[in-house]
Each structure stands twice: as structure tokens, then as C-alpha cells.
Amino acid sequence: MSSLLYLLGAINIIVSIICGVSTGTIKGFLITAFAGVLKTILLFGIGNIIDNQDTIISYLNGMKDNKTGVLKKCGRCNKEYEFYRKSCPYCGNKD
Fold first, then answer.
1. Rounded CA gap, 44 and 68, in Å?
2. Fewer CB in a 10 Å sphere around the end CB: N or C, the chain?
3. pLDDT tens for residues 18-60?
């Protein structure tokens, strides 16, 4: 999906330049090219967001699969807790 948005953004910039040149005026070209650049930035931004969400979802799915059985030991109270926690749930020590 994101690659389609990147492709549409590239096509949009080319079409906006062609339309801008066909207006025959500098003002028309600048307005059309500026609008095309804005639309392209939007399309690229949405594509980037989708890529980031896919990365986050796959990371979270991997964490869900690895949660069971993987423990680490607290350096202060020596109790074991899940590896994904930022601090010990028993004493609050941050490793």
C-alpha cells in the first residue's frame, strides 16, 4: 500500500509540472507546481506512516510471541520478571 502511495506521489509531481508548463505563465506554473509538491508531500508522508505502523505491528507481534518463558533477574532484589518490562515490578529498579 505504501509503495503505491510513493508511486502516486512521483506521478503527481510529474503531472503537476506538465500542467504548470502548459499554463504558459510563470504564475500558473508556480501555483500548479506548488500544489503538486504539497500533494506529493502528503502522499509520501502517509506512505511513511503506513511503513512505520507495519514495523511497529511486526515488532509488537514478535514481543507477544517472545513474552512467555523469557525472564530477567533484578540486580537489586534478585527476583525474576518479564524481559520486556522497563523496571522491576517488585522494587522499581531500572536496569
1. 38
2. N
3. 999 999 999 999 999 999 999 999 999 999 999 899 888 887 7
Cα 34 to Cα 55: distance, rounded to the nearest angstrom: 32
pLDDT tens digits, one per residue of 49-62: 998 998 888 877 76
Angle at 5 between CA 23 and CA 21, to 5 degrees: 10
The whole domain housing 38 covers 2-67
pTM over 0.85: no
Asked whether the beta carbons of 9 and 43 are under 8 A apart, the reply is yes
Q: Is residue 82 part of a domain?
A: no
* Residue 45 is assigned to a structural domain of this protein: yes
- The total of structural domains in the chain comes to 1
- 47: number of Cβ within 10 Å: 19
Does any domain span residue 74?
no
Domain assignment of residue 84, yes or no? no
